Amino acid sequence: MKKENLKRTFDLSLKLDLIKQIERGELRVSEVSKIYGLSPTAIYKWLHKYSEMYKKQTRVIVEQKSLSKKNADLQSRIAALERSLGQKQLRIDYLEKVVEVASEELGMDIEKKSKRLS
Q1: Does one domain contain both 51 and 80?
Q2: What does residue 28 show for φ and ψ, rounded to 5 degrees?
Q3: Domain encompassing residue 100
């Protein structure tokens, strides 16, 4: 028995809707391919035929936006960690000075005793 290939046709409005969703980044070509059982080549043909972006040869760069956002997030995280580190260092310096002054006033080395306890 010979397996027959069914030729399916899709409504133009469906094609245009899918193309718009791809252009907006809501769907990827691979997702449309899996959902509708189409080859990615067929979807790319629709894009070339019906898409305004492809007619203008405009490239959609999704990764660049996400990389920029990720970079900004990392920069803000670094700044927050540097602030926290600076505050901790100030606290350490302050406590060391307190221990030094207390040692001088009491006439004994508090720092050595505290190191023994920990």
Answers
A1: no
A2: -110, 160
A3: 72-117
For the chain, the domain total comes to: 2
Within-domain flag for 30: yes
Q: Is the pTM of this model over 0.85?
A: no
Q: Are 77 and 112 within one domain? A: yes
Residue 4 covered by a domain:
no
Write the secondary structure of 58-102 as one string of H (helix), E (strand) and C (coil). Answer: CCCCHHHHHHHHHHHHHHHHHHHHHHHHHHHHHHHHHHHHHHHHH
pLDDT digits over 37-77, tens only? 889 999 889 888 888 776 666 555 555 567 778 888 999 99
Residues 23 and 51 in one domain: yes
28 phi-psi bin (left φ>0, alpha ψ -120 to 50, beta other): beta
Dump pLDDT digits (tens) for 4-32: 667 788 888 999 999 888 888 888 999 99
The set of residues, in sequence order, having a beta carbon less than 8 Å from that of 60 and lying 6+ positions away, is 23, 25, 53
